[in-house]
Amino acid sequence: MRPIGWADVLVVTPYNAQVAELARLLPDARIGTVDKFQGQEAPVSIYSMATSSPEEAPRGMEFLYSLNRLNVATSRARCLAALVASPDLVRVRARTPRQMQLANALCRFIELAAEEGRGGSSGRRTAEPGA
Predict the structure, then answer these.
(1) CA distances to 5, 72, 89, 113 from 77, in Å
(2) Could you tell me the CATH number of the domain that includes residue 16?
(3) What is the mean predicted confidence (pLDDT) over 82-94?
(4) Is 101 contained in some domain?
């Protein structure tokens, strides 16, 4: 067993401006968008959603809540996937069936993580597109 270092952690965020800010604050961390980490894994993946509400999200809800982005960001982890997000992102008012589907995937990921934290079923799970 060894201590976890920055080489063991991926920090994924949807926005290049957030990548730049996090890189400034955490110069030794591996930080990037989903595109940078396609095909890569690490023991720990941290997904920073980087906005306080869907209304304030640059590029809109479709981009921020992208099913592919959530799945890729969280499935990079071999041991632990952490989501850093405002609680307001799960209290979204969906206006279309597509927005409901997008918000549902985020909510389901959080539900599964809560079950796992309470000693639910073992094994690695990620939010599946359309879940």
Answers:
(1) 14, 9, 22, 14
(2) 3.40.50.300
(3) 90
(4) yes
